[in-house]
Amino acid sequence: MTKKLAIISTHPIQYYAPVFQLLAKKMNIKVFYTAGNQHLNKFDHGFKKKIEWDIPLLSDYDYEFLDNKAKDKGSHHFKGIINPDAIAKINAYQPDAILIYGWSYVSHLKIMRHFKGKIPVYFRGDSMLLDQSVSFKNLLKGILLKWVYQQIDTAFYVGTANKAYFKKYGLGENQLVFAPHAIDNARFSTNKDNESIKIRERLNINKDDILILFAGKLEPKKDPELLLEAFKNLTKSNVHLLFVGNGILEEILKSKVINQKLTHIHFMDFQNQTAMPAVYQACDLFCLPSKGPGETWGLAVNEAMAAGKAVLTSDKVGCYLDLVNEDNGSTFKNQDLSDLTQKLIALTKDKATLKTKGINAFNHIQDWSFEQQVNAVYKYVNR
Hints:
Blueprint: E1 4-9, H1 17-26, E2 28-33, E3 42-44, E4 49-51, E5 62-65, H2 86-93, E6 97-101, H3 106-115, E7 121-124, H4 136-148, E8 154-157, H5 160-168, E9 176-178, H6 185-189, H7 193-202, E10 210-215, H8 224-232, E11 239-244, H9 250-259, E12 265-268, H10 276-282, E13 285-288, H11 299-306, E14 310-314, H12 320-323, E15 329-332, H13 337-347, H14 351-365, H15 370-381
Parallel strand pairs: 1-2, 1-6, 2-5, 6-7, 7-8, 8-9, 10-11, 10-13, 11-12, 13-14, 14-15
Antiparallel strand pairs: 3-4
Helix pairs in contact: 1-15, 7-10, 8-13, 11-14
């Protein structure tokens, strides 16, 4: 008989809900959403618009929205999630174990501390050390994190950089279980030729032209401005750049393009989940030039690879250690315009080589799937 697992998460997330749906087919789970149901259709400050995901996030698994009593409700700060009845609600479910996504909220930390020693407490987070510098503040933070992770029994780590983070803050090898960060590989690899051709035609991009794609929030940590500057240094006339998304840097980027009379640079607004596979498939090279802090993984890289595209990332993108290599793309030093430019020049020399790298990317990402993640959690919880 499989064990009952209580899962604690802030709100429905497009990268977590499919995992819960698959887990529910294997075992008895219940997800407790702590931020309250106001997060269902929330204004996303990064995208600067109200976001309502167009894939099902609340089907095929048991869940409950806990009452959030915080004065300033939200998952953007520690005191934004306070659930006075959380422990009573979880106890009523009578779980054999508990899995908590993220600790940095009043309720989540309280739940961890309450159940420690009573039932196994598992943890899921994707933090890493790539942003860290030596400072008194980070020294104090390190002391806090070592205390926090004493409250858990096991962490399901997402990749190499995340594992190093957990080890630094006190977890032993026997407390770490690999459960790969993942997206819906099948959805992003489903053939969308008709739609992707229309996207290129709408942007006046010829079949033989090379299209570089940036997709995500147009915000400082992702450094789209650096990509724009590097693109300006390319001399080939058959290379295009497409920014897909919205954010606080949107007007700055568009103004630069207009004022400097730049060509072959295109913009599309935020595209929802069902539209994104065609967007990735329309490009030849995906670039995530983040400088951080806080680009903990970069799941857009998974999406591009699942769509069969070559990838170029900075060394501040958490996934680069696991996903990016010379066979499927390249990595450059963050904030280094010269390095990014040289990598772009090298990768855009030949469309045929990009296609080969894209095939390699597709093959590599098959081991980073929801199914692998779910199997890792299921097997460990029910070991």
